[in-house]
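NUDIX hydrolase
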Amino acid sequence: MTERPVVKRTARAILLDGEPGSEALRLVLIKRTKPGQAPYWITPGGGVEPEDSTVVAALHREVDEELGAKVVDVVPAFVDTVSHSLHHAAHGVKVQHFFVCRLASMDLSRRHGPEVDEPCGTYEVVRVPFTRAGIDSVEVVPPSLRVFLRANIEGVQALLAHDLA
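Structure:
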């Protein structure tokens, strides 16, 4: 079996707002609408940059840029690996690291970075119930994340249990 080089890494937040186990618990997503394409919903996050000391540092930077938010209780939850070509040259894989975390604060007026400064389409912050019905109500991408979340609602919440650490 041939190994494929990792050409890109991302850090993404499965960002929960509210108390795990409560009916008020919400998943914070970004509804992306690009010209000529159907809308889709993504978790906040993005590429790990050379100046990021760790993948978790990249997560904090990206959440700050995209949401003007701070997160706490960052716990690794899921990894997705997909084929990826960098600048249409090097072929390899993109590894997406998904972390469950709690929303500590959010001020959308603090958003900054390329998504805000030079948007391609719209970035609308939305909250959906963190339930199977809530996840089914939007087109979460990547599809592997949607399948993981739908199958693991209780387990994802358990990653934020006060007695885990």
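The helical segments are 55-67, 114-117, 132-136, 143-151, 153-158.
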